[in-house]
Design brief:
alpha/beta, ten-stranded mixed beta sheet, single chain, globular
Length: about 725
Amino acid sequence: MAQTPDIIYTKVDEAPELARASLEPIIRAFAAPAGISMETRDISLAGRVLAVFADHLTEEQRVSDDLAALGELVKTPDANVIKLPNISASVPQLVATIKELQSQGYALPDYPEEPETDAERDAKARYDSVKGSAVNPVLREGNSDRRSAKAVKAYAQANPHRMGEWSSDSKTHVASMSGDDFYANETSATISAAQAGAAKITFTGADGAETVLKDGLSYLEGEVVDATFMSAKALRKFIAAEITATAPGVLFSVHLKATMMKVSDPIIFGHFVSVFLEDFIAKHGAKLDALGWNPNSGIGDLEARIAGDAELEADLAATLKARPGMYMVNSDRGISNLHVPSDVIIDASMPSVIKAGGKGWGPDGEPADTKCCIPDNCYAGVYDETINYFKETGKLDVTTCGAVSNVGLMAQKAEEYGSHPTTFEAPADGTIRIVLASGEVLHEHAVEAGDIWRSSTAKKAPILDWIKLGIARFKATGAGAFWLDANRAHDAELIKYVEPALKEAGIEIPIMAPREATRFSFETMRAGKDCVTITGNVLRDYLTDLFPILELGTSAKMLSIVKLMQGGGLFETGAGGSAPKHVEQVTEENHLRWDSLGEFCALGESFNFLAEEKGRAKSGVLGAAVDAATQQLLDNNDSPQHRVGQNDTRTSHYWFARYWAEALAAQGDDAELAAHFGPVAKALAENEAKILAELKAEEGKPADMGGYYHADPAKVAAIMRPSATLNAIIG
């Protein structure tokens, strides 16, 4: 049996993957003298696609299923994984990946939106297994501890990022459904010993015929099981009303997460598109059906399908002109909020609007107040309260504010992010039930055709582990709260776990509904105090973008530790929401502005973990030197910047390597490492001008990666490691 490497570094997608091609060789060169082994595992979207279609490929084209292997490893004490941001694919991204791989000679089937044959159903099932949040639920066998590293926080306070000015009369606001959403319809139950075991989800039509939607479920004693649905009619009524109510000069937008909520949110997005284009669809429905357009794919896909049809293009333009101006992803290219479901991701898009003083970019390229539609009320109140708070108090002073960290319940596919296999669009009017092996009906909802029904779970062991971690971080931080709404069915079940655990621990930690907790957290940080938010899975995701983007200017610089329940460590490196824009700049002018600060922080923690848990003293020396190098990099302002000629990812990696080597050469804890890295540090310093010139030599010119989702490794290496001098020194 092969020995588990000391550290596993993940191969991913887009800008983080380009950055890896530059940074990973440096890490390997520094780890080897300390006797630390390191290997790479591929969890990229293209890699996941190829892994599930091995039987369609030649022997040379086949790849191992690295995600499945990592999924087993994280259940062991030996796991030490550095996870970079990967694509959580929407259908358009998945389709684009398939087309690219097909063009490279991989005999993959097309993605069948509406499968008709057994082969198509099989293909769709395989593809659906890799889209959306396919990676995180597999790897996150522990709960989340996210906070800003001290060096990062100190730098942000000393070098404040630009914040937009808030006005008390801003028209920016959040709009949500008045009822009949997931929040209003949720039911929840904690499984008793008698109820534990097999279960299924059924649909019973008006004619009494029963269909099994999902079989083979199994619930554990103590597991919290939820079920809920969103009314399609109520949703469409809400959308129509909000379009009509959009004031002149205010942008219209919707904020969802079609990548993570890969079943429900694309459907909700499609309703927004179809209501927004209602007149156009009513006039041309038959033609659009013939073209195979699905509103869930967005306006961008529609424009591609009708290209060249003058009548359709003119009518679409007229329909859009008659509607409110839209929040834009890219004003220059005419890419709106409703173009692609994966382009506007709520945890990145809402903080962006808030950071800008409540402004979104309009079709004219100018900032404007924005109506932010977040249909479901489970978490919309967080953003609504944030906007209301800043209207009252003005922008945040990032030079004095405290730090907001998070402990998130996410282990073992907890809560909504684990609901994909149990989310369904009601096929007709009828009843959807969760039925236990005994025949007991655990949950039951009367639904209408098109309603979106989902079930999610949270297991007892992760819940108890989350509470324990929350208590520890509260003690370390000094302030915080459990974000739980006693009026929400799911949260009420979690409170039944939290209250006794707090009593047993002899500690008082407030339990607050998300809206109340939002204001509490902002008031705490505005007073210059640190605060921990102890939340469920979705709020973990949302808040670890919201607060860092306001505090630090980005969420990519957060320290993200997953304390795996079996004793291993998973170290995540931040968010990748801006990665596509970064890649675009590389292809156009060979300048990558991806900031690897998250990777540096994760790397230091990974080395420290290896030292503390496995007794590897040299690893601890490497970790301490990483921290020193990171601090020096920030102090000297050597992070990537936006324009050609300025620092980019590659030059930033040079400075990191140099400072890391200098720290190792100067330390007195390990003479062997000091002796090894003394000459390395000297060579990096003496060749500074030559290395920087080589790194910048090709900037300003287009760069060919040989693919977007499945790039050519040799071409990527040439782009990301252009300094022969640096490569020779590092090895």
